[in-house]
Amino acid sequence: MCGIVAYLGSKDAYPILINGLYKLEYRGYDSAGVALIDNKLSVYKTKGKVSKLDKFVEDKNTNGFIGIAHTRWATHGEPNKENAHPHYSMNKKIAIIHNGIIENYPTLKEELKGRGYRFDSETDTEVLANLIEDVMHNESCSLQDAVLIALNQVVGAYALVVISEEEPDMLIAARKGSPMVIGIGDDDYYIASDATPIIEYTKNVVYMNDEEIAILKKGQPLKIKTIANQDKTPYVQELEFNLNTLEKGGYEHFMLKEIYEQPSSIRDSLRGRLRAKEGVVSLGGIVDFEQKIVHANKIIMIACGTSWHACLVGEYLFEDLARIPVEVEYASEFRYRNPIITENDVVIAVSQSGETADTLAAIDLAKEKGATVLGVCNVVGSSISRATHAGSYTHAGPEIGVASTKAFTAQVTVLTMMALRMAQLKGTIPTSRFMQILHEMEAIPDKVEEVLNDGGVAQMIAEKYKDATNFLYLGRGYNFPVALEGALKLKEISYIHAEGYPAAEMKHGPIALIDKNMPVVFIATNNVIYEKVVSNIQEVKARNGKVIAIVTKGDKVVRGLADYVIEIPETEDMLVPLLASIPLQKLAYYIAVMRGCNVDQPRNLAKSVTVE
Ligand code: M6R
Fold first, then answer.
1. Quick check: 305 and 350 in contact, CB under 8 A?
2. Do the beta carbons of residue 101 and residue 56 sit within 8 Å?
3. Do 164 and 93 touch, CB atoms closer than 8 A?
4. What is the CA(510)–ligand 1 centre distance, in A?
5. CA of 482 to the centre of ligand 1 (A)
6. CA pair distance 184, 381, nearest whole angstrom
7. Does 302 contact ligand 1 (Cβ within 6 A)?
């Protein structure tokens, strides 16, 4: 993961770099650092968050019109100051920031040690810095050539930027497997892991492709080459997002803001794609592949974390509506199996960031096997959106909180539209039923609004159970993925152990955990298996467990059994995840806040997991 920012131009680099790091902190916050050239190359770094770095440099020279900066999520070496980026080369003339993993670094390090190089850190990145210095020295070549030669010796993944005191008007960037965007200003250049640090300065960007090197020299046009040294023409695109979406907008945390944005993010996902009155649902990005999906042998959905939970909802939707067999796979498992995939299969990769390394590797595998691969991504221009044959964006807007909320409901929204469209094309749904679901889908944003205005119930329940050490989340059918998602939200931000289970599986093991201290969250909405879930609630109550239940408005039976209920409006069973997930997001949020946890930046996590 890690966030990288770089600047070259006529403005003071430091404020641009530090602001960029704050925006990229969601990618990691174990340590941070900055390198600036003001005649001399200086590197400053600290363990901990970007604010610590900002404080640390208060009495240092932060002048300079060129610089690179990094916020780290540790892979090689513990998160201390020595391992923080930027890394100097041994002669302290070169500095480098890097996101990714150099797999053959132990061999390279041994070779460099044999040639007299010393290392201050345990990182793979410092090896690369010294390798570049070594090449420059041996070949008497420019920084640009040295980076090119060095990268041809490297195995692994990287997004990196290199500067040298000896060529102080130049940034060299390279990408293979980790994201990198270049912003082109009037007389300056910006580089970052994603466009958020760049957008306030310029809308003209170039998304680098794998195995490309960019040479950015003051006063000269951007040059792009492949690492095989072939010239490429930079493809400049105009960014389209609104700066306000990157601010907290009066909310205490991004996560809370993003939870409350869901009526509008779902509306944005539906916009122009679903028109209930006309009986239209259509996703422009996959129109050319519709027949391929309709006639697919099977669909394989691949994703990680929350996106994997959205896929589970997708599985039920495609099976129910379009009668297409679906398998849902953890991308991290799928990539190392020998899955049975043919050219008649369609793979759908779901990812908020579009940068998840395991999902990218699973896409490569599926493509190798000849499958058609479609993406459902939130971040426009992301690696997954470009690695897939086609796809649909979720249009949820930037999600900054590490815990995914609005991205999940937007993913479910897009998968629902896809399944409905396939059902329509395949003729597996009567028109009247199709129209009914379309109308209900159109009403979802208003219903989400209603769920959000819960009169403080989620907060009150959070107060009651904030000190619990374990939680169980149970649901069946469409509500099973919601249970998994509810449990993930709680554990990742509050550090309370939580498990999600299909409610009926409780009696095969988890029931042993139930006692008076165990809160059990049931998603017990009106559906064909409601009575069965009611029985599961009774089983928990009989063992003195505490029951918190998400129920359909007006429910009396569960209300009579549960300790606390949260009502959601009546809707189609298949659309319940869009409503029922919201009180669970709020519950997790308030519990985490009450426990004093850093909600937007939970420990050990990062927003996009760009390493294995
Ligand atoms: O960006 P992606 O959707 O590919 O990310 C997948 C997971 O890393 C992500 O959903 C993670 O589980 C979230 N922190 C959950 O809130």
1. no
2. no
3. yes
4. 26
5. 15
6. 16
7. no
Alpha helices of 427-556 — where are they, by DSSP H?
431-442, 444-452, 457-465, 479-494, 530-542
Sign of torsion over alpha carbons 512, 516, 519, 525: positive
How is the chain split into domains, by residue range? 3-239, 247-448, 454-600
What residues pair up with 390 in beta bridges, in sequence order? Answer: 374
Pocket of ligand 1 contains residue 202 by CB under 6 Å = no
In this structure, the number of other CB atoms found within 10 A of the CB of residue 221 comes to: 9
Quote the pLDDT of residue 244: 63
Q: Do domains 3-239 and 247-448 have the same CATH topology?
A: no
User: What would the pLDDT profile of 111-142 be if each residue is shown by its tens digit?
Assistant: 999 999 999 999 999 999 999 999 999 999 99
**What is the enclosing helix (H) or strand (E) of 310?**
helix 305-317
Q: How many other C-beta atoms lie within 10 A of the C-beta of residue 130? A: 25
CA of 307 to the centre of ligand 1 (A): 6
Name the nearest CA neighbour of 313 among 533, 492, 485, 450.
Answer: 485
**pTM for this structure?**
0.77
Ligand 1 pocket, mutate which of 1, 304, 489, 495 (most atoms under 8 A from CB): 304
Does the structure show a pLDDT above 80 at 246?
no
Q: Which CATH class is domain 3-239?
A: alpha beta
CATH of 454-600, one of 3.90.1310.10, 3.40.50.1220, 3.40.50.10490, 3.30.450.40: 3.40.50.10490
Query: Active site includes 377?
Result: no
Segment 28-52 mean pLDDT? 93
By most ligand atoms within 8 Å of CB, the mutation choice from 306, 311, 605 for ligand 1 is: 306
Which pLDDT score is estimated for 299?
97
Q: Does ligand 1 lie within 6 Å of residue 1's CB atom?
A: no
- 2 in active site: yes
The CATH superfamily label for domain 247-448 reads: Glucose-6-phosphate isomerase like protein; domain 1 (3.40.50.10490)
DSSP state of 209: P
Measuring from atom 12 of ligand 1, which residue has the nearest CA? Answer: 305
Go through the chain and tell me how many residues it has. Answer: 612
Tokens of 484: 């998994």
pLDDT in tens, 305-359: 999 999 999 999 999 999 999 999 999 999 888 889 999 999 999 999 998 999 9
pLDDT grade, residue 243 (50/70/90)?
low
Over residues 258-271, the mean pLDDT reads 95
Q: Is the CB of 359 under 6 A from ligand 1?
A: yes
Q: Is the CB of 125 under 6 A from ligand 1?
A: no
3-state secondary structure of 347: strand
Mean pLDDT, to the nearest integer, of 153-160?
A: 92
